[in-house]
């Protein structure tokens, strides 16, 4: 099986300080390159980070109250080190569009989305000087102008610090050796933010997509199983209806000619008029004399309409069963079959002579011993209920 093509997504990393952003990216990008054997997301979806700096400013209203506002959110290169930022609009212009055709089946839409190589911008990890809830709301409003709501997650302070501002101040007061230890533990400073952004991208955003796709696939499989079961149920209902109709349908048989009944339950199955012409000149397979042919034939072959009691015969071949006792009485092969006499009959609805008894004509006229009056419409079950035993040949 060919290896599944690896898909990509984008996750924004937003801070208020460009130098701190660049430091975080210098620690985050190596994490993304490391093989993560135990993470499903790393084996199927790769992440492209968008390092961004959010700039805020303020002004005083008519009452002298400072009003803070967001001035810009700019992209600073893949490593966050570009001195001059650029607009995020080109990235949002590349967002995958939903299928425009509303007539497309919802399942096909989901499959199309799963097969896309680019999954879009999934969310944003926020920190590095941005933690106020009002600032987060301003960022959310800004992104709503570019697209629908974008998930944002803000890094949280570690105990015992009440806020990231106090935690950052404490980190700056550490000695170089202590900062190195914190970087190894990834519990404070830029290393903590790098680990936070990585975990948010893989454990939250990408894992949510994988979980959703797994649920969708399971739901599709469940629906497909239900569809197949429903089709089988309908096919079985149709088969039973056809079989029941065939069993209940009256059969007109001429008692002045031989009829043939199931050897087990004596149900009349077919009459001489239902037999396929067995003419070696027409169905020649090997050359036999008429005498040899007559003495060698071990089966009867019926016409297409000679066994309405057989039910559904849509398959290429199958077995014939007595409609009353379900004993196997023959087979059908639409491609044809060879008689024991050597004649090839196509199509072949074949009943071995050993499976049926022959009811010989009983021509008694008035006071005769006919099982049924000539011309009587009988069903196989009425015939089976007859008390006069058939003559076996």
Molecular structure report:
Helix 1 (18-33) crosses helix 8 (189-248) and helix 7 (176-185) packs parallel to helix 8. The two termini are 63 Å apart. The chain contains ten helices and 16 strands. The chain is an alpha+beta fold.
Task: Set down the secondary structure blueprint.
Layout: E1 7-15, H1 18-33, H2 40-44, E2 45-60, E3 66-75, H3 89-93, H4 106-115, E4 118-126, H5 133-144, E5 152-154, H6 164-172, H7 176-185, H8 189-248, E6 251-252, E7 259-262, E8 268-271, H9 290-296, E9 299-301, E10 317-321, E11 328-333, E12 337-338, E13 344-345, E14 348-352, E15 356-359, E16 377-378, H10 380-384
Parallel strand pairs: 1-2, 1-4, 4-5
Antiparallel strand pairs: 2-3, 6-16, 7-8, 7-15, 9-14, 10-11, 11-14, 12-13
Region (Disordered): 91-112
GO molecular function, one term: protein tyrosine/serine/threonine phosphatase activity
Family: Belongs to the protein-tyrosine phosphatase family. Non-receptor class dual specificity subfamily.
Structural features:
Znf_C2H2_type, about 400 residues, about 20% strand, alpha+beta, protein-tyrosine-phosphatase, protein phosphatase, Metal Binding Protein, Guanine Nucleotide Exchange Factor, Chain A, about 35% helix, 5-stranded mixed beta sheet, coiled coil, disordered C terminus
């Amino acid at each position: 099986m060919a290896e599944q093509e690896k898909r990509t997504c984008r996750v924004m990393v937003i801070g208020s300080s460009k130098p701190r952003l660049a430091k975080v990216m210098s620690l985050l990008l190596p994490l993304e390159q490391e093989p993560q054997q135990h993470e499903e997301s790393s084996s199927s979806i790769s992440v492209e980070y968008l390092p961004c700096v959010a700039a805020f400013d303020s002004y005083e209203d008519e009452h002298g109250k400072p009003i803070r506002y967001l001035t810009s959110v700019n992209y600073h290169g893949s490593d966050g080190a570009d001195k001059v930022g650029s607009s995020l609009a080109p990235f949002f212009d590349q967002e995958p569009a939903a299928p425009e055709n509303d007539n497309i089946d919802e399942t096909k839409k989901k499959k199309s989305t799963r097969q896309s190589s680019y999954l879009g911008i999934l969310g944003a990890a926020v920190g590095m000087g941005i933690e106020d809830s009002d600032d987060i709301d301003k960022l959310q409003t800004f992104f709503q102008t570019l697209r629908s709501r974008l998930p944002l997650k803000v890094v949280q302070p570690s105990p015992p610090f009440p806020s990231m501002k106090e935690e950052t101040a404490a980190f700056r007061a550490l000695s170089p050796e202590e900062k190195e230890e914190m970087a190894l533990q990834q519990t404070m400073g830029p290393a903590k933010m790098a680990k936070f952004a990585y975990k948010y991208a893989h454990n939250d955003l990408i894992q949510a997509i994988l979980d959703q796709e797994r649920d969708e696939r399971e739901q599709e499989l469940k629906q497909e199983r239900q569809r197949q079961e429903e089709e089988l149920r309908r096919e079985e209902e149709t088969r039973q209806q056809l079989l029941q109709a065939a069993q209940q349908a009256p059969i007109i048989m001429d008692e002045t000619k031989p009829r043939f009944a199931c050897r087990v339950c004596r149900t009349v199955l077919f009459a001489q008029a239902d037999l396929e012409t067995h003419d070696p000149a027409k169905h020649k397979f090997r050359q036999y004399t008429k005498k040899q042919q007559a003495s060698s034939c071990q089966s009867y072959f019926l016409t297409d309409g000679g066994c309405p009691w057989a039910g559904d015969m849509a398959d290429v071949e199958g077995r014939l069963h007595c409609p009353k006792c379900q004993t196997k009485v023959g087979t059908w092969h639409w491609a044809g079959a060879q008689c024991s006499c050597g004649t090839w009959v196509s199509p072949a609805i074949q009943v071995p002579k050993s499976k049926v008894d022959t009811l010989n004509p009983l021509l008694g006229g008035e006071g005769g011993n006919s099982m049924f009056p000539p011309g009587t419409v009988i069903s196989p079950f009425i015939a089976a209920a007859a008390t006069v035993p058939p003559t076996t040949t």
